[in-house]
Design brief:
Length: 366
């Protein structure tokens, strides 16, 4: 019988802070496809693979960190998990809370959450709080809330989140046989770039600032190298590029509409220690990359996810992509979460026709 993927804690338990006897809350997250993208490879003159994180149970990479964060909460008496979110974290927290038998509270910037993500929080029974402010305001509030009440914070400032998310790097090395030369990913609150950098290092027998123990130093290295980390922010929400907080972040990629990333220092360390970069792309470039992924590769991603590919294409245009390099782009969330943005101005004629072959053939110009 084919191996059934067991979720990231079961698959990588020796590199995660869980023992054999611990109760694990999982929806089978991880084990996502790494897809070779010929069209993008040809376009940038490298070997490009896409890590499809939209294939996780709730449709984003957040599930990797939620299985670890919520499993840890299950070891305590706390009955409620809480998160500030631009949408995906809340969807994931709400789903894993259901799986764990806990309650969830999500604090969201009013009017700035894609419809699919909001639907997920609602169907999973989260208590919703919409704030007249941006994500950074929501994160401040949820930090104060979890300080004051018996509620567990499951944003990526919770170290268990990053522990789970680092497993995406493990999967990539396991699939490619070694680390890629370059890893490109979108950056919002900067937890994920921190987690990938930790994962790549730990698989190479090293630790990073974000590591919570030194077990990696005592384990057989799996990778012989670590990649350059290339982070990509949205033009109007690019604090790490500008080197200063953005008070009123704006971008069509609402998932990364963040002006004051919590993991700022870790992200800078990942950039500098890997000899990488953090750059920014416009909303137009994001939408164009989303289109390249859907029409030339066959992967439908949400706008924030396309920032990685937009950043790679921009780097290629600037002559910054080394010939033939092995590159992985993470696409972080599923396109179905935000169909409104994807369809945008799309002009599709869905006027009904008579139910006959002739009428259908006529519309098709056959
Ligand atoms: N891509 C997507 C689809 C996201 O939802 C996020 C973050 C990111 C990229 C950026 O990752 O924050 O680790 O740098 N979404 C968070 C949320 C903020 O609330 O769902 P990051």
């Amino acid at each position: 019988m084919a191996h059934q993927w067991q979720g990231i804690i079961h698959e990588y338990r020796d590199r995660l802070p869980f023992g054999e006897g611990d109760e694990i809350v999982t929806l089978g997250e991880g084990g996502t496809p790494l897809v070779y993208a010929r069209a993008i490879s040809e376009r940038v003159g490298a070997e490009v693979h896409i890590k499809v994180e939209g294939a996780n149970p709730t449709g984003s990479f957040k599930d990797r960190g939620m299985t670890t964060a919520v499993s840890q909460v299950k070891q305590t008496d706390v009955q409620v998990v809480a998160a500030a979110s631009t949408g995906n974290t809340s969807a994931s927290a709400a789903a894993y809370a259901v799986a764990a038998g806990l309650k969830s509270t999500v604090i969201l910037p009013a009017g700035k959450i894609a419809a699919g993500k909001l639907a997920q929080a609602i169907v999973h029974g989260a208590q919703l709080v919409a704030v007249d402010g941006n994500f950074d305001d929501c994160l401040r509030i949820v930090r104060e809330l979890t300080d004051a009440y018996p509620v567990a914070l499951v944003n990526s400032v919770n170290p268990y989140r990053l522990q789970g998310q680092k497993t995406a790097a493990f999967e990539i090395v396991d699939a490619l046989g070694d680390a890629p030369d370059i890893h490109v990913l979108p950056v919002g609150n900067a937890g994920n770039i921190t987690a990938y950098w930790m994962g790549y290092n730990e698989y190479a027998g090293k630790t990073t600032l974000a590591s919570i123990d030194d077990s990696a130093l005592h384990m057989e290295p799996v990778a012989t190298k670590v990649p350059q980390m290339w982070g990509v922010q949205a033009w109007g929400a690019a604090p790490l590029v500008l080197g200063e907080i953005v008070q009123n972040p704006e971008t069509i990629a609402t998932a990364i509409r963040i002006g004051n990333p919590a993991s700022w220092k870790y992200a800078e360390a990942a950039r500098d220690d890997s000899k990488g970069s953090i750059d920014r792309v416009t909303d137009e470039q994001i939408l164009e990359a989303q289109k390249v992924l859907s029409t030339e590769v066959g992967i439908f991603v949400e706008p924030a996810s396309a920032a990685s590919v937009a950043g790679l294409i921009q780097a290629a245009e600037q002559g910054k992509v080394p010939d033939g390099a092995t590159i992985v782009c993470t696409v972080t969330g599923n396109g179905l979460k935000d169909t409104a943005t994807a369809l945008g101005e799309a002009d599709v004629d869905l006027t009904p026709i008579a139910p006959t072959l002739e009428a259908a053939a006529g519309v098709l110009g056959l």
